[in-house]
Amino acid sequence: MGAPGLSPQTGVCPRKPGSVPASRGLSPQTGVCPRKPGSVPASRGLSPQTGVCPRKPGSVPTNRGLSPQAGVCPSSPTAHAKKGQPPCLAKREQPSSLHLSCALMMPWRVYYTKGMKGTEDLLLQRVRNKLEGLGRYFVFLGTLGRTSLKGPLHISRCLTEIEHVGVNSVLIILLSGGAIGMIFALQMVALLQPFQAEIGTGAAVALALAREMAPVITALMLIAKNGSAMAAELGTMRVTEQIDALESMAISPVQYLVLPKVIACFLVFPFLTLLANLVGVFGAYIISIHLFDIDAASYMDYMFSFLSPRDVLVGLIKAGVMGLIVATLCCFYGLHAAPGAKGVGDSATNAVVASSAAILVADYMLTTIMLRFIYA
């Protein structure tokens, strides 16, 4: 049945000639009220053909006030049709070549901005990772210091590491120290000959070797030979879960693996530096006396008049500090190696690079401190 009092065909009341359909008083054909000649469609008062209000001649389409032909607001000729679009493309007139080039460059400008932002994020991420690694290194140093104080100390492992780092490295130190001494003597004689001061070659070589050259050359040679081996050994143990096995047996990897290496490097580096000093001075003596015919007695007397035990002691202190730096850095990178063969190789490479850079920075800082407090 239909609604009470309404016709089932039209939905209007037959007793009222002016009645309208039951759908809110609107005509079913046009959707307007027949009692109001100026009424507009039911879709919010807008015409279904143009989408504008017929009562307002200046009204604009319903698409946020934009014309369907130009996509702009007729009340604002310079309004933008889209966000970020140049003003020239929003106007009705023909755009100029300058404006067209500006519009064509917009995607490149956006791409360049995004690329710069991505580069900045990458740099910040790398700096953050380096700072986190530095923090973990200092935590590792704290763990190492605490472990060395509470013991016990594995003497047998310390002796094994001393043999591996010290005794097996004598030959490379002899070769490098002798080569440095002879090359330095050649350069100094060529420099001093125009001034007839070749006799000062021995003093210059001895001072340079004792203070700077011997500790640095020894540290670099031992980094290349032993530092990379330490990092690779510990990295392989980490990847193959041997370190996890030690921890499961309540054995500290730092105490059992790292501490003997650190003690061995701290003890061996000064002795190898002293050996490099002796071999370098001897090589300079051979070049100066037998190749350039410098008087041997005058050469030795002039050298010992400038060289003092304090200079040798300064070099030995530097060598001990460099030994600690090399051992701790190489062991740190080995213990924190990433999984896989690539992780072990990367840990060894990073250990060598970081140790080489660290001893150069440490040499500068130690030289500054010693010149201020020891040689003052």
Summarize the topology:
Elements: H1 87-90, H2 97-150, H3 155-165, H4 170-192, H5 201-239, H6 242-248, H7 253-291, H8 296-306, H9 309-335, H10 341-373
Helix pairs in contact: 2-7, 3-7, 4-5, 4-7, 5-7, 5-8, 5-9, 5-10, 7-9, 9-10
Keywords:
376 residues, 10 helices, 66% helix
Strand element count: 0
**Strand-residue proportion:** under 5%
Content-based structural category: mainly alpha
> Please, what is the average pLDDT?
79
Give the proportion of residues in helices: 55-70%
- Name the poorly predicted regions: 60-85, 87-93
3D shape = elongated
Main sheet characteristics:
none
What is the count of helical runs? 10
Give Rg in angstroms: 43 Å
Can you write the helix and strand succession as a string? HHHHHHHHHH
Notes on the structure:
This protein is 66% helix and 0% strand. The protein is mainly alpha-helical and 376 residues long. The protein has a domain of 219 residues. The longest helix is centred in the first third of the chain and has 54 residues.
Summarize the structure.
The protein has 376 residues and is mainly α. It has ten helices and no strands.
